[in-house]
Amino acid sequence: MSTPPAPQAAPRIQAFRGALLHFLGDPDELGASAHEYFDDGLLVLHDGKVAAAGAAHALLPGLPEGVELADYSGKLIMPGFVDTHVHYAQTDIIAAYGEQLLEWLERYTFPIERRFADPEYAREVADFFLTELLRNGTTTALVFATVHPQSVDAFFTAAQARGLRMIAGKVLMDRNCPEYLCDTADSAYADSKALIEKWHGTYRLLYAVTPRFAPTSTERQLELAGRLLDEHPGVYLQSHVAENKSEVAWVAELYPWSRSYIDVYDHFGLLRPRAVYAHCLHLDAADRERMGETGAAMSFCPTSNLFLGSGLFDADAAKRHRVRVGLGTDVGGGTSLSMLRTLDEAYKVAQLAGQRLSPLRARVLSGDARLGAIALSRRPDRQFRRRQGRRFHRARSGSDSADGSAHGQHGRSHRAAVRIDDARRRSGDTCHAHHGSARIHEVAALSRSRAIAIGASSRPPQDAPGASSLGSIGS
Ligand SMILES: [Zn+2]
What we know:
This protein has two domains: 13-79 and 376-437 and 451-461, no CATH class; 81-364, Metal-dependent hydrolases (TIM Barrel, Alpha-Beta Barrel). Helix content is 33%, strand content 23%. It is an alpha/beta fold. Strands 5, 6, 7, 8, 9, 10, 11, 12 and 13 form a nine-stranded parallel β-sheet that branches. A six-stranded mixed β-sheet has the order 3-2-1-4-19-16. The chain has helices at 27-30, 56-59, 101-114, 119-135, 149-161, 185-199, 219-231, 245-254, 261-267, 285-294, 302-307, 315-320, 339-352, 359-364, 382-388, 413-416, 422-426, and strands at residues 13-23, 35-46, 49-55, 68-78, 81-87, 138-144, 165-169, 171-172, 205-211, 236-241, 275-279, 297-300, 325-327, 376-380, 393-396, 417-420, 431-433, 440-442, 450-454. Helix 6 packs parallel to helix 7 (219-231). The protein has 17 helices and 19 strands. Mean pLDDT is 77; it is low at 364-372 and 377-475. Zinc ion binds at residues 85, 87, 240, 278, 330, 333.
């Protein structure tokens, strides 16, 4: 006779009331049905997983008595933002003055990145950076660490402790950089491989092979970067391309055989799904066509492009060539970790380029908005459950790839529930940076409406057909 199953404990039920907004698809394709908005909405969680989302009047009567109901009336509840390009190690040099890209790297970036050889320093900055990301409503990001493997360990350890979905990698850089930051093609390969084995798919963390950009890698290093991707399906790639005209000219000198900057990456097999390139400003039609064909994605980083005087991103051209685009803050070249402020600047860049970025388009900016959806949790994610022996759920929302988890690992929904503070927003649209202990005082800008962002579905699908699923961004 079989033993009857043990009675299951009743789930912890939480409900959040407020204006509710989430995205189901790309507004360019689906029009008004790409999003759902409930002026008086209710989000219901069972053990931290999304159980229901909709109009409050429809859902309230079904709530059991005594349920925890948080009232955010007058505020906006939505999934967490996804930042598709940011350098956690550059947190301390945000808004450093007065240079364009190459001088900026030399003068500010490389000296600060040197400090990440010290794991304790890396840990301290990773903690601060993730606190700031959450304060700005960002629950997932594609993140550059530094050349030091310990900088990746520090970052992932801090992300795991907060229950966050993060994608990051060790920078590969074996030439044209100070000796203190130089790896070799072989050491970069070995270190990256070890980090992939340690972190990729561990809990909610994913690895990205991270050549800084073509000028700081030898051909051998780029070749081995391609090999890492071939050997580890599901791993991401992140790099920079065509940010600045001097940089483009330099790449033409370093790779005289190449047709273009993008062609260098293409030659080494680095254009593919799950490859995300920051900037993509000085490209031609053939470059964009190739990115569209291969499934490589663009990260549009407007505050950085304006701050470093790099150029204006051509969103219409990307769309014509079917290239997926996400938004990135690119801190420290970028001036704010706030995706709201980044959206604001993206709109202005489009205006300067003679284009129009519709509010809804600006909210998604990618071909895959599944991450912008508040999705219901329905079935277990076996892979993660196997690995961790803990409870994870894969959500379904028209597809199986969005994560309906509204929180971290242990039912602590408050960890991913981020409130963008009204007082901060009202205090002005400023960003002060200080070297040293004061760090950043970041003020979210743009929106007059009060907002909270609940990180409901920040999971990039491992099996989705493109890295650009990273890029669905709500505001
Ligand atoms: Zn960057």
